[in-house]
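Troubleshooting: if your tokenizer reports a length mismatch, compare against these two reference records.
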Amino acid sequence: MAFVHGKDTFISLNAANLSTFVNTSELSREADEHDVTTYGKGAHVVAGGLLGGKATMSGIYENTAGTGPRAVIRPLIGTVVTLIRRPEGTGAGKPQDSASVHVKSYVETNPVADMVAWSCEMTLSDVVTSTVQ
């Protein structure tokens, strides 16, 4: 087992490489849970349901016209596009997750004593495809 540093993570949205603008990202998967407990049981019984999840990314604001996060993400709000995330970076044999995501929000935060930051929240639409590059 080898530990992996996050600095090599690759992330793109709608085929736009945002890696140089992102300093944290997350891809979470979950499943609906249904209570199927019947009379006579002493504890809950559950069954799994539909899969779902969300993805987030954020970073320090960069005003690069045309390729910065503001220029790329804001026009995508409300649309479903492809997210690609490579948690170990790009290279043969490394994992890659690809998913259709609904771009739910883009937020800019302007603290008085720090750098302007941004964040984006996305909802998974359909299954996540995990492959080896």
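Reference record two:
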Amino acid sequence: MRALSLALLLACGAATAQPRLTLPLTVVMLDGSGWTRERAESALRDAAAILAQCGVTLEPAGFHIVEVPASRMDFSTPVARELARAHPMPRPTLYLVRDTRSRPAFDAEAIGRGNSRTRPEIADTVWMTAGVRDPGIALAHELVHVLMDSGEHSDDARNLMRDETSQKSTKLSGAQCARLVDNGKANGLLN
């Protein structure tokens, strides 16, 4: 496993609001998954800019490249549990994987506390496939799911929490910001 610094990566991420809280995020990129460091860094910068509207900034907590067999490159609950046990990481954690075996298939998936009761090893994690569209927006969307500990979506065309990500859908309401801050602090995910 090789560790890379996120400090420079996130230094320019949250320019749109004064950060009041930090979200320490650990990143695990599976070697050979189709992700590149540059694409991951770009997604993190974009997500940081979106979360800044709620006074939250991403804080570097480590960037790890992990080698796994090809049979372990795609998200599924058993593979995720195995990976999390074999390579314990501080939470919340973003895993950059090749694809998904889940059906229905999602390009990104958030595992909060509410949907991890039967799989506690992967609580407070986000899993993103190499084929994800709008990676930074998708990452911000999934992190909000984890912070709010909710799978709720919005019908508002400009809201980040629409069920389909879009470059036009990056706004969060005041109520959503308050909920993600309150739940994120209560669950120890925000400092």
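Descriptive notes for reference record two:
- The longest strand covers residues 56-66.
- The chain has one domain: 2-186.
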